[in-house]
From TrEMBL:
Keywords: Membrane, Transmembrane, Transmembrane helix. It comes from the Bacteria. This is Uncharacterized protein. It comes from Enterococcus mundtii. The chain crosses the membrane at residues 6-26, 47-65, 77-101, 113-138, 150-174, 214-236, 248-267, 279-297, 317-342. The lineage of its organism: Bacteria, Bacillati, Bacillota, Bacilli, Lactobacillales.
């Protein structure tokens, strides 16, 4: 049951990174105002609002039907609902939150979290439909099956991609509104201070935000590396005999992402008890995670040395060694970076006070 909340958090984290990166790109190339102008014009016209609502409902209905057919009603997938105590059903329901995204005016941290989760789940729909076999199993054992409607599946994927792109654009606009609201809050809180002090506060808040972004983005590097290697193994049709180890590594890299989010608490602007507690929790979780990672990856060094010493030229063996060594080193790096950022933050604060 605990696995699904972690999966939803990872989906949210990935979508948040996509939104932030695209927001920075669009802001730098100066097309934000164009997108915002189109969005405002569409909201002013009642006919457009009706078209958007009906179109969104139709696409989400088609997407839900297809994802449900492949991943809920096919084979033994329905048992996951019971094993997850119903949490699995959120995969099919979360994207429907995007129906209210075009009409939302005010955004805060909770709404941004929910919309990132719903938009990220929409991306998950596209991925799982793309890799789904064109077969619908009629029984739990997978004995009886019927061919899926491939044309309808491809049409659904195409419509979901279009809807996802539009949702990401709306998320970028929402993210911009959220950042502006945060900046207005900071300005109103420090309006009575002198210009020099206000400048220092803005710079310090900007550095904190940068530190938090760096910590979260850095924590996703191990799982991105692992997924790339696993994808290569899938492309070359390599059937790993250590599937259990791969699962452990996936969990370890997910825990690293959770650690990245925990680190935002002691890198952010919170009271000392929250900072201290989050730092202790982060240290305990990451130490345990590193021990587990080392336990299942240290053999990669031995394997690599043996391959080189014996002059073997098996790409699959090199891939196993690189996968284990890479995950170990990247996990260690991801765990160390928040401590370095915390040190730099304290050093920067002491200089500002002087």
């Amino acid at each position: 049951m605990w696995l699904f909340p972690i999966i939803y958090l990872c989906i949210t984290a990935v979508q948040w990174i996509i939104t932030m990166v695209l927001h920075d790109i669009i802001t730098k190339i100066h097309i934000y105002d164009v997108l915002d102008g189109i969005h405002k014009k569409m909201n002013l016209k009642k006919s457009w609002r009706i078209v958007v609502a009906l179109g969104s409902t139709a696409i989400l209905s088609l997407g839900t039907a297809q994802v449900t057919k492949f991943y809920l009603l096919s084979g033994a997938y329905f048992w996951i609902v019971y094993l997850s105590f119903g949490l699995y059903l959120f995969v099919f329901l979360l994207p429907w939150l995007n129906l209210i995204l075009p009409y939302r005016r005010n955004f805060h941290s909770k709404s941004m979290f929910l919309f990132n989760m719903s938009t990220g789940t929409l991306l998950l729909w596209i991925i799982v439909l793309s890799i789904a076999p064109n077969i619908i199993y009629l029984d739990e054992a997978g004995v009886t099956s019927i061919p899926a409607n491939v044309s309808l599946k491809l049409i659904t994927i195409g419509l979901l991609i279009i809807y996802y792109i539009l949702s990401v654009i709306l998320m970028i606009l929402a993210n911009h509104i959220y950042i502006l609201d945060e900046e207005r809050t900071v300005v109103s809180l420090y309006r009575t201070l002198t210009d020099i002090k206000i400048l220092k506060v803005k710079n310090r808040d900007k550095n904190r935000l940068d530190y938090q972004k760096i910590a979260v983005v850095n924590s996703t590097i191990p799982i991105i590396f692992l997924l790339i290697v696993l994808s290569i193994e899938n492309v070359i049709k390599y059937d790993s005999n250590i599937q259990f180890v791969d699962n452990i590594l996936v969990i370890a890299t997910i825990v690293t992402i959770i650690g990245g989010f925990i680190s935002t608490l002691f890198l952010g602007n919170h009271n000392k008890w929250i900072k201290l507690t989050s730092l202790v929790v982060y240290t305990i979780v990451l130490c345990f995670n590193l021990m587990i990672t080392f336990l299942y990856t240290h053999s990669g060094f031995t394997l690599l040395f043996e391959i080189i010493a014996e002059g073997l030229h098996y790409f699959s063996l090199y891939l196993i060694a690189i996968k284990q060594i890479g995950v170990l080193l990247l996990n260690i790096l991801a765990c160390i970076v928040p401590y370095i950022l915390l040190y730099r933050k304290k050093k920067k604060s002491s200089i500002d006070l002087e």
